Design the sequence.
């Protein structure tokens, strides 16, 4: 379903035709809360750089690229802009890991 330009998923156990108004309001509120919790920190120095909370943990987003935060960092929200830039530069310098080709079954 769509509300104010945002899409909200309807769980598979609820039929769209049987969705009540109270259930729809609850789904919309949960979606808004999840979206608000996603942003951990943004930086005024560069609006394209932000620290986000994702499916697999906290990460750095810069433009359209994502960067892992090193395990040595215990509090990602406390990172400074300079530290984030250093993590991005270090990740860009590292050689890309080759991807394994999918094996075919005969």
Sequence:
């Amino acid at each position: 379903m769509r509300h104010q330009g945002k899409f909200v998923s309807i769980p598979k156990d609820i039929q769209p035709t049987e969705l009540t108004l109270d259930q729809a309001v609850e789904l919309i509120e949960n979606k808004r809360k999840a979206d608000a919790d996603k942003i951990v920190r943004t930086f005024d120095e560069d609006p394209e750089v932000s620290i986000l909370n994702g499916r697999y943990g906290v990460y750095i987003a810069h433009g359209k690229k994502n960067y892992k935060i090193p395990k040595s960092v215990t509090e990602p929200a406390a990172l400074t802009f300079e530290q984030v830039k250093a993590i991005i530069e270090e990740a860009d310098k590292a050689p890309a890991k080759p991807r394994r080709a999918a094996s075919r079954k005969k």
User: Anything to note?
Assistant: Strands lie at 2-3, 6-7, 39-42, 49-54, 57-62, 65-68. The first helix runs from residue 21 to 38. The radius of gyration is 19 Å. The CA atoms of residues 31 and 67 lie 25 Å apart.
